[in-house]
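Hi everyone, sorry if this is the wrong subforum. Our group has a chain we'd like a structural model of before ordering constructs, and none of us has done structure prediction before. Sequence below.
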Amino acid sequence: MTKEFTKGTVIFNEGNVGDSCFDVISGSVGIYTDYGSDVEQHLTTIEAGHIFGELALVDSYPRSATAVAESDVKVNELTLDDFRSYFENDPEKVTFIIREMSERIGRLTKDYEEVVETIGELYPQNADRKPTIADKIKQFAAAYKMAAKNNKISREALYDLVQDDHNDGYTDNVETYSKGTIIFKEGEPGKCMYDIFTGSVNIYTGYGTPEEKLITTIGVSKFFGEMGLINDAPRTATAVVNMDHTMIQSLYMDDFKDLFKKNPVKIGMLVKYMAFRVRKLTDQYTDACKLVYEVSEAEEAGNVSEELKKKVRAFQAQY
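Answer:
Right subforum, don't worry. Here is the predicted structure as tokens:
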């Protein structure tokens, strides 16, 4: 549905429940927290050709910011139910939306890795934290204070993708692998993402080293490796086949228009999955920033307890 907003109009408010996203046709939209208050913060500006509010495609979750027309604006408002007709009218948008969401996943992953690295430098065993990370502590403490007012609910409970006809209608780039086959290695450039038809895949960091850690196991009708769609972005983990006769489809950016024609349900699932990944990464980032915030507050009060140090070291042990 096409909508127009005059300059200064609020498109949606922080805290509103949303069930749609917006594709900017013309004009620009400002994204703010605490809009209209003394602590208002401008987060970013969304220009024509980009989308905002896409997390509402996953669930009716309160908006985390306010969107305001910075000029006269024309947008397409889209729900999941709108996507089929939207893509049929402009197949190029399939690639566009998936690329947008892949890039956001990449940015969030980088942010999360930075805060995890900072926590790793807090209170190592029998030592004080490194004084050189003081600015990072302030940065992530501020990020938590910005996000803390937004209530969180379990992403896992909401991740319920429709499975009907997931693998029907599109069988290009499908291969069968034996147990132990490495699909891609941590650090190598990515070129595609993957969809599991049968079997399962383990995701590791530090695979084959003393620091090897199993992150997760991915099963049938699940996607993985989506950051490989972002201009050959390096893989952040290693994917290893967990069962013999595992059948996996490789999905390249150029495939999505054809995939939509043959299996539109799968494109809807893919968009929903990516929105879920953004939400989950945002929650993980907020949780990590919260721990840094607690350290910042304790240090400012001159009261860093052994209990807090144990909490930090427990987080370090996970990563």
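For your construct planning: The chain has three domains: 2-78, 93-157+274-318, 174-251. Residues 93-157+274-318 form one domain.
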